[in-house]
# Entry
Amino acid sequence: MTPVSIIFLYLAFRLKQLICDFILQTEWMALSKSAPGKEGYKALFTHTAIHAIATCLIMLVFAPGLIWLGLADFILHSFIDRTKGVLTRKMGWMPKDTYFWWAMGADQEAHNLTHLAYVIIVVIYSGGVVLS
# Structure
């Protein structure tokens, strides 16, 4: 991969995060994904399935042999969101609380680091960086 294609791949993941986490995530998903029981997991898995599909689409463009990263993204995104959601719910943190925003920032950075790992996997799979 060239340095420019690596930048485009990373930007594709950042755009995916913006679209899937903020534009396509409904109020039901956002408010229910940390709820206990079936309702919580239904909202969570609906949200993370959207992320998984978007990751598969990115892989179809950049590295079709790594389409399985969609499943990895489903699992990792579910774990990150559920952990943040359960923690904020258990602690009673609301948007008016500083800790809520710390948790939100940690959640977003965990997704960012996950995407960086995917980029590294794609670069390795593609044979590394080509500078010419």
The two ends are 10 Å apart (CA to CA). Helices lie at 3-23, 27-32, 37-62, 69-91, 98-125. Residues 3-125 form one domain.
